[in-house]
Amino acid sequence: MNEQEKKSSKSEYLKKLAAAYRAIYAVGLLSIFLGLLALFATFSSAAIPGGIIFAFTFFLFGAFYLLLGFLVQRKKSMIALGIAVGFMGLNAIAGLLNLAQSGSPVGLIIPVAFISQTWEGFKAIKNLK
After folding, report:
1. Are 16 and 124 in contact (CB under 8 A)?
2. CA 73 → CA 23, 58, 78, 100, distances in Å?
3. Do the beta carbons of residue 39 and residue 52 sit within 8 Å?
4. Residue 39 dihedral angles phi and psi, to the nearest 5°
5. What is the dihedral of CA 129, 21, 78, 119, to 10 degrees?
6. Coil, strand or helix: which one is 45?
7. Distance between CA atoms of 45 and 28, rounded to whole angstroms?
8. Any residues with CB less than 8 A from the CB of 56 and at least 6 apart, and which?
9. What pLDDT shows up at residue 48?
10. pTM of this prediction?
11. Helix, strand, coil content of the chain in percent (nearest 5)
12. Residues 6 or more apart from 75 whose CB is under 8 A from it?
């Protein structure tokens, strides 16, 4: 393999890694946004019992995903990527259960889209190290 091919393959792996950690960051930001929505809904309506716990859980998972994204981006951590993919997989399983109960695939589309972006990160980290 000549020098030009090495540079182009490294560039391709860097793009795949960037797609992986951006997807993890997106899940984290989406979780924090949903936490804010749950918090506002709790304060605007007394009809949601335990809304603060719900919002806190979203904030906690959002911060955790942001930490995992940081570790994947800066440290090229395969463990952090595996944890993120594992949690996304659990979310996809919950989407499958939702699909079986409601017949609506909406809860399955987003987790599958994010998993497909992060999955390529394993190969990218392996080849960049």
Report:
1. yes
2. 11, 22, 10, 36
3. yes
4. -65, -45
5. -100
6. coil
7. 26
8. 35
9. 65
10. 0.90
11. 90, 0, 10
12. none
**Concatenated DSSP letters of 2-14:** -HHHHHHHHHHHH
Report angle CA 61, 120, 84 to the nearest 5 degrees: 15
Per-residue pLDDT tens listing for the chain (129 residues): 577 777 788 999 999 999 999 999 999 999 999 999 988 888 887 666 777 888 899 999 999 999 999 999 999 999 999 999 999 999 999 989 988 998 888 888 888 899 999 999 999 999 998
In angstroms, the CA 39 to CA 43 distance is: 6
